[in-house]
Amino acid sequence: MGPAGNLQGIRQALAMGADKAVVIDDPSLRGSDALLTARVLAEAIRREGFDLVIAGTESTDGYSGVVPQMVAELLDVPALTYATKLEVSGEEATIHRQTDLGYDEVRASLPVVVSVTAGVVEPRYPTFKGIMEAKKKPVETLTLSELGVEPKVEQVVVGVEPAPERTAGEIVEDDGTAHLKIVAKLEELKVI
Predict the structure, then answer these.
(1) CA atoms of 147 and 145, how far apart (whole Å)
(2) How many CA atoms lie within 13 A of 153 on its CB side?
(3) 3-state SS assignment for residue 179
(4) Is residue 9, in this structure, part of any structural domain at all?
(5) Tens-digit pLDDT profile for residues 24-58
(6) Phi, psi torsion values for 160, nearest 5 degrees
């Protein structure tokens, strides 16, 4: 979908406080993989300049969950991932990353890329004033050639096959030697 189809969403983001929008619209992006997406985003971010890049953990179309980390690698900056809380103080970003036992506190010097989980922030509703001001804010549209990115194919899907059906498992009753049968089965499968 080109910028015209996304214009309403772009204007909403501008109404919520963004200063400017950059749209990358190029027909060669159709069907792009995670690496090409990361390369394009990294070049657009580098072109604008940055201290802090905030991204979702994964998109709703590809669900790969790797683009923010790839962008950080391409920009040669730290990636703070799966943040449930973000604080920026001076030249340092601190996140809380959820764990089974609570959370890890992770810090890095700016510039940094942070991927956040759902529910980290509640988007604020745009005010009428914000909506009116958004109409005056710049929306720049770029192509891959303007970013200096070659749309080379990184991955090609050669086929899709359904997963094989599961076979019935084997029930092992414990007569005192069940552990030996389980170990033998794991060795047969080359798991151990």
Answers:
(1) 5
(2) 6
(3) helix
(4) yes
(5) 888 888 878 888 889 999 999 999 999 999 888 87
(6) -135, 125
- Measure CA of the first residue to CA of the last residue in the chain; give whole Å: 50
Residue for token pair 């059906």:
165
Instruction: Return d(Cα 192, Cα 185) in angstroms, integer.
Output: 9
Range of the domain at 64: 3-81+121-154
What CATH number does the domain containing 13 carry? 3.40.50.620
Domain assignment of residue 88, yes or no: no
The pLDDT value recorded for residue 2 is 47
Of the candidates 17, 23, 31, 30, the one whose C-alpha atom is nearest the C-alpha of residue 4 is 23
Nearest to 11 by CA among 121, 137, 128: 137
How do beta strands 112-116 and 79-89 pair? parallel
Amino acid at the residue 24:
I
Token pair, residue 3, equals 């910028």
135-178 pLDDT per residue, tens = 888 888 888 889 888 877 656 778 889 988 888 888 888 888 98
